[in-house]
From TrEMBL:
PROSITE patterns with a match to the protein in the record: CNMP_BINDING_3, HTH_CRP_2
Organism (species): Winogradskyella immobilis
Metal-binding listed as a keyword: no
First and last residue of the signal peptide: none
Domain of life: Bacteria
Keyword ATP-binding: no
A Pfam family annotated for this UniProt entry: cNMP_binding
Domain Cyclic nucleotide-binding: 12-91
Domain HTH crp-type: from-to ranges: 147-222
Protein name: Crp/Fnr family transcriptional regulator
Key words, A-Z: DNA-binding, Transcription, Transcription regulation
Length: 223
C-alpha cells in the first residue's frame, strides 16, 4: 500500500519535521488539538506548514452560500498548509482536527525555505509534490461540479485503490484498507451520508463491491 502524500517514496514528515534536525530539536514542540478544534481559519496569516504526527485533519472552505466544501481529509504523516511555501500570505481554506488526540508538527516557512536552499533534491521533491496535490484537487473539484453522485463515488473508489489498495494492478479482487469513515467519504465527494449508504448498498447488491468499516473489496472485471 502507499499514501498519496508519500510521493515517490519520500516521507515529507521525516524530511521536514524540525525535531529530526539537531539545530531545531531544542526549540521545537508539537501542538495538540481536540476534535473539532481549528488549526487555522480562512483569512489567517499563512506563515507555517503543518505535518500530522497523529490523528486526522479536515481541509476545506465555505462557499458563497455558507456551505462547507471539504477538499481533503489527511492522516498521520501528511502535509498541509503547503501553499505558504509558494508565497501565499493568507489562508484560503480552514484546517480542523477530526480526532481528540491530534498532534501537529508546525514548521515555520522560513525554516522550510532554509532546508530547501540547502538541499536541491528536497526542494525539487517538495515542488513536485505540491504540483501533484494541486492536480489531484483540481480533478476532484471537476467531479463535484460535473459528475453525478454514483460517478463521483466510483472515481473515488479508484482513487482509494491507488492510494490504499493492493491487487489493484493484478488479477484478483481489489482490496482497499483505508482510514476514512463513511461521513468522511460523503464529505469528500459532496453527497449526504444517507445517499452514500444507498449507493454503497446498491453496488453491494449488484456484487460490484463488498465493504465493512475499514475495508472495501472491488470485484475484478465488474467496475
Amino acid at each position: 500500500m502507499s499514501s498519496i502524500w508519500v510521493f515517490e517514496d519520500v516521507n515529507l514528515f521525516g524530511l521536514l519535521c524540525p525535531h529530526k534536525y539537531k539545530a531545531y530539536t531544542q526549540v521545537h514542540d508539537f501542538d495538540a488539538y481536540k476534535k473539532q478544534d481549528y488549526i487555522y481559519f480562512e483569512k489567517d496569516a499563512a506563515n507555517k506548514v503543518y505535518l500530522i504526527e497523529k490523528g486526522k485533519v479536515k481541509i476545506g472552505y465555505y462557499n458563497e452560500d455558507g456551505k462547507e466544501v471539504v477538499k481533503a481529509i489527511l492522516k498521520r504523516g501528511e502535509l498541509f498548509g503547503e501553499k505558504a511555501i509558494l508565497g501565499d500570505n493568507i489562508r484560503d481554506e480552514f484546517a480542523q482536527s477530526l480526532d481528540n488526540n491530534t498532534s501537529i508538527c508546525p514548521v515555520d516557512v522560513k525554516t522550510v525555505h532554509g532546508l530547501m536552499r540547502n538541499n536541491q533534491t528536497l526542494s525539487f521533491k517538495i515542488y513536485k509534490f505540491i504540483g501533484y496535490k494541486i492536480k489531484k484537487l483540481e480533478r476532484r473539484l471537476q467531479l463535484l461540479l460535473f459528475k453525478d453522485a454514483k460517478t463521483r463515488l466510483l472515481d473515488f473508489l479508484d482513487e482509494l485503490c491507488a492510494d490504499y489498495g493492493y491487487n489493484c494492478d493484478v488479477t484478483g479482487d481489489d482490496i482497499i484498507l483505508h482510514p476514512y469513515t463513511q461521513k468522511d467519504i460523503a464529505s469528500l465527494i459532496g453527497i449526504s451520508r444517507p445517499t452514500l449508504n444507498t449507493l454503497l448498498n446498491d453496488l453491494k447488491e449488484k456484487k460490484i463491491i463488498d465493504f465493512n468499516r475499514k475495508e472495501i473489496r472491488i470485484y475484478k472485471g465488474i467496475v
